[in-house]
Amino acid sequence: MFFDFFLEVLFQLVEEEDLGQEGRTDLLALSLSGTDLIGHAYGPYSHESADALRMLDEDLGRFLDFLEARVGREHMLVVLTSDHGVLALPEWLEANSPPCPIPSGRLSPKRLGRGLADHLNERFGMGSSPRFLRNHMGFFFLPEAGKPQTHERIRAAADWLGAQPGVARVISRDEIESGSSRVPLVNLHAQSLAPGLGPDLFVETEYGCLFSDYPTGTSHGSSHDYDRRVPLVFFGGGIEPGETWMAAKTVDIAPTLAWELGLPTPGDLDGEILPLAE
């Protein structure tokens, strides 16, 4: 089985630590990350991803059966989710439903960086080159050795980047911090900033375009739905089987668990309590 070794360790951990026993509440957090590597390499619609998910389903079911037999379903509260989604392989999209205006489907941040450096050097005579925090995220820093950053230079960089094929929009840190941006989902970028720190520019790709300098595989990191939507499942005592289309976020997990356990939560905690029972 796919996660056999890892689950055998979990079986022993639960037994040796007497988890779920002695009338106390225990928290067990698992990260089953093999699907992440397979998804990056082969894409979400591949046979490899389907096979990995099938084996994960079997192994996880075996572990949940073990827990239920040991402590009883009425004493369990299980949450299943994912840390992110993923874009389909650009090659698959190109063959099936090409949404990206770039033929390859891949937008090279290194190529954008070199082009932007040339543009800024030509206009302002600067010698330093833009750099990025993480390629697939589209975060651009505009270092200017020994000189303060200028709004004119940031605006010029944003205008040049926004005119490139595959770029949907460019948002500056100044726009986010001042609250002047009206870009949809700008709050997602705001959560990546600390006051006065962070990228100078956030570059968003067109729908279906991938920020990547790699010739194969796929990734995530945009604000598009395929990167942000994840499953969220609660299972256990007092939870009736069902499905809801109400809005829910991963940050809702912590306050929901706290509510179910009778624990107080800070008033400024992100997330809301999800109703798990009628």
Summarize the structure in words.
It is a single chain. This protein is α+β, with helices and mostly antiparallel strands and 278 residues long. It contains 10 helices and 8 strands. A hairpin with a 6-residue loop joins β3 and β4. α2 (34-42) runs antiparallel to α3 (47-71). The chain is globular, with a radius of gyration of 23 Å. The chain starts with a helix and ends in a 17-residue tail after the last helix.
Topology of helices and strands:
Blueprint: H1 4-16, H2 34-42, H3 47-71, E1 77-81, H4 90-96, E2 106-107, H5 109-124, E3 131-132, E4 139-141, H6 151-162, E5 167-172, H7 173-178, H8 186-190, E6 201-205, E7 210-211, H9 225-228, E8 232-236, H10 253-261
Parallel strand pairs: 2-7
Antiparallel strand pairs: 1-8, 3-4, 4-6, 5-6
Helical segment count: 10
Strand order of the largest sheet: 3-4-6-5
Proportion in helices: 25-40%
Shape: globular
> Main β-sheet, in a few words?
4 strands, antiparallel
Output the helix-strand order: HHHEHEHEEHEHHEEHEH
Low-confidence stretches: none
Count the E strands: 8
Mean pLDDT: 85
CA radius of gyration is 23 Å
Distance between the termini: 37 Å
How much strand? 5-15%
Structural class: alpha+beta
Give descriptors for this structure.
globular, four-stranded antiparallel beta sheet, 278 residues, two-stranded antiparallel sheet, 38% helix, alpha+beta
